[in-house]
Amino acid sequence: MERRVKVYRLNEDGKWDDQGTGHVTVDYLERSEDLGLFVIDEEDNETLLLHRISSEDIYRKQEDTIISWRDPEFSTELALSFQETTGCSYIWDHICSLQRNMHFSTLASETFHSVNSELRELPPVELSTLPLILKIVESGIADQLRVTELILHDQVFFRKLMELFRVCEDLENLDGLHLIFKIVRGIILLNSPQIFEKMFGDELIMDVIGCLEYDPEVSHSHHRNFLKEHVVFKEAIPIKDPVVLSKIHQTYRVGYLKDVILPRALDEAIIANFNSIIHSNNAIVVSLLKDDSTFIKELFARLKSPNTSTESKKTLVHFVHEFCTLSKSLQMVHQHRLFRDLVNEGIFDVIADVLQSEDHKLVLTGTDILILFQNLDSNILRSYVARQEGVLFELLVKNMLTDFGDDMHCQFLEIIRSLLDSFTPGSQRENIVEIFYDKHLDQLIDVITSCAPNNGGQMDSKSVSSDRGSRGQSNVKPEILLNVCDLLSFCVLQHPYRIKCNFLLNNVVDKVLYLTKRREKYLVVAAIRFIRALVSRSDEHLMNHFVKNNLFKPIIDAFIANGDRYNLLNSAVLELFEYIRKENLKVLLRYLVDTFWDQLVKFENLSSIHALKVKYEQLLESAGTRSTATVLDQRKRLDERALEKEEEDYFNEDSDEEDSASAHTAGSNKGQSQPSVLVNGSTTNYPSPRAGGLVDYDDDEDDEDYRPPPKKLTDVSDEDEGLAEFPLKRKLVSKEEPEPKRLHRSPKGLKPREGVFAALCSTLSEAVLPGKRVGTASLNIPPSNVNQNAVEPNLKEKGSVDSSEHSQNAETENNSDKEEVSPRSFTDGLNDSADNRKLGDDCLLPPKSSPEMAVNGS
């Protein structure tokens, strides 16, 4: 790595002379193993500076960009001024690192030269030379390679050392035995695989272990006696290969040496070498045995033979288990090949037989073998289970529900879960899932149901007491119930498509909730985990099932019974509430608060409960806002109809005196209230009749105090201006059909309507179909004679009727008109409009008007 610098030299006057600019590097000096600083001129590539880095502390760093030192060769001060601080830091760190290595090498070389400078071979192994040999072995780290070479070069060193050990042991020479112990331990600490290969051979290993028995710091141990007498080598099948036997014995003894004799003296590097030896030996043993076809065939022949004794069969099963375990030392390809060969030999048939044994330890050993196959390749076991139509699977489920005492573990559960795992690739997965749900799901549920209380599963709050679950329960261990519940939770997550057809139809959820009545809190938590798994599916049908069957009640009861205790049950329920709130599951949210808030209110100080209530209130507010918007939209669409109802109610409340006055002047009001109409039925562009005589009755003294509501003016004006379109008229009029029926029930208020409201209806009819406007004035004339001239006899008839008679005949005329008028008298678009307005057209003309005004338009 190059760095740009300026080179300075201190002159005799005490000033720095610039020697030039170049790039500095750290490199080896020519024909030397020493490192130095090289500065090469950036212009002509000439060497500006060549300095051998010294181990002496002569270097100084100034201002992060300058390194200076006194060069002993030139007897002057030199300095390097760097352009960048990073370059200065790099060179400075390099110099400091080299100085540290130089100090270390100096110390090591001093030790080497003091002890082994002229040593070409180890001294002869004698009792008198043991101290010198020990000094050579413990000479130091820098001398390890040299000592290792000397030991390996001397072919008889270990043999002579072991012979001397046996002599000292026979003579009980403890000083010599202690020295030999230290020498052997020092050789082991050299951590040389080549030396280990010699020491741990069959000829020397027992003597090496004997040397290590004489540790001066501890009392004498009898390791050899233990290995020879107490350790028994069992052969399930006689092994004829001597190499296999040698490796098996060596593996055990090296492990004993590592774990028992020298556990405190060995460092991680030595332990790693010991493990490497063991691993290598295991691979050799398995490879040699698997290639021996005679050995494998004899093994399975004995396993399948009915004449094999129980003890021998147990030994064979343990051997198969150890054999499969050691196969992990093989490469993956060879391990796959071995396991498939074992399957072809019928190992699963053997394990199926083992799983039916009365010896629980043997059953668990067989289960461990299945787990080894499952961990290597689950498809191997899955294919066998599907091919045998679930015979082995049935044994696994049966043993999972069996009490194994203190040896009960979760092996069966793990194997079943692995077989049912939907994320594991394989063609046989669906077949095994079908087998499980068709044959074994009910079996698991029956185990839970057998633990139900005597009250038939009534899960009320009274059942959650100190003695709940103590009666009516079978002898199923709680650990088994826990495994069953965990397996069901696993199935919910792995096979959600099975929830409706297998879980809901068979009331599995209700039965699992029986566990909430148990005394064991971890079973209650397991049931809550099952519900939590179901809720996580966010299935609306499933949530409606919860609400319909009130399935949260046992969970709430258990939560209430738990009180303020902060435990796993409390956390599980709160986490369930928190999930419902965060995922905004509205059905469950309303169900929880509406049904159980009276019980949960005392826990409102908990953040999860409080947040649940806040979310519920927000849900109600949002629902109320949407409802209000809908109502406002409906009111807006029915606004005109509502206004006319107000108008009708107002006039229905008028006094009888005002009604009589209106009836007296009804006949003469038509001339002024109706707009000008030509003979052909068309209207002129005169002002609207609303402003001419609808409100202002100048000639009617009886109506001087009459003041219509201001709102009516606006409403009528809006209608006059906005009803020029025919479709809009049909839409508005069709909403007013019920009004004539209500008016018939109020004969008292009939006349005011004829005076005012009928004028409005006349105006609207004129705006739509002016040619037939006048026809509405006479409802007693047949439809074929309706024209402008038909108004005159009708007006004369009404003019001859006094006020008292008119009020009595109004209702009769009203009813008769309704029966006589037919939709054929009008166009289809005005059918409803004419029917609604026919009651008020008799009195459209104002007082003092003549019938000719309606015809001539004057």
Brief sketch in words of this structure:
The protein has 858 residues and is mainly alpha-helical. Helix content is 59%, strand content 6%.
How helical, in percent, are the residues?
55-70%
How many DSSP H or I helices?
40
Radius of gyration: 55 Å
| Uncertain stretches of 5 or more adjacent residues | 110-117, 454-473, 654-858
User: What does the main sheet amount to?
Assistant: 7 strands, antiparallel
Beta strands, count? 7
The amount of beta strand, in percent, is 5-15%
Arrangement of strands in the largest sheet: 4-3-2-1-7-6-5
- The averaged pLDDT comes out at 73
What gap, in angstroms, lies between the N and C termini?
117 Å
Structural class estimated from helices and strands: mainly alpha
Overall 3D form: flat
